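ok so I'm stuck.
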Amino acid sequence: LNLNYTVSTSNSIVSLSQDGDFQTVKRKRNNTEQSGEQSSPFMNRSADQKLNMIYDELKYIRENQEQMNRGMLHFQHNISAVSNKLSEVITVTNRNSNVLKTLAYKSIDLEARSRRNNLIFYGLLEVVHENCFAIIRDFINRHLDLDADNMYLARAHRLGPRKIGQRDSHRPIIVNFRDFCDTDIIMNRAHQLRNTPFSIGYDLPKEIKDARKRLWEEVKRIKQTSPRIKFQILYPAKLMVEGKIVR
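replied:
not stuck anymore, here's the structure
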């Protein structure tokens, strides 16, 4: 503890230095002090009493310092304990996040597999009192050169609400096939619809659709630099370029 205490008397200054030695320095009385200033209680005490007061003050400061040091050590201990608990919470949170992410992926995959017998047909004109089964069978026969009579269509209907008064509506038609092989055969012929207003797509969850959309944007960038490059977008969202999965 580096402290310098100075005791003023009427004729001198008694200074307590860092090493504990007393030094007395003579000083000249100030005219103002001589004329009107009253002496303080400390000044009226004897030298021994002054030293005792200084000692008590130093003892009080030392005790406060020790108390503060103990409080600081206790505070550091608590901070260390909180830091350890926080690390444990972060570890558990990261582990739970990975588990939730895995469960989310499995849920999306199960949803996609439950829809794999569904196909969505785009660009077909909507008419009043239409028969979606007949429209799809005729479309498959005429545009895909397939025999739709040998395919079992379990369900077929338009997607989305119908807007009253709107003409030339082209709401997509979703079709559920009983056999997955039929959807596979149809999608293998979907390239014949190129340069036509029609298209066919899988019925996929929104998460997979968004991922595949991002892959198509990647394909566009690749095609700008390498127009002849061969690529495929595999299930659920894998980009294969020249036989290698790149994303």
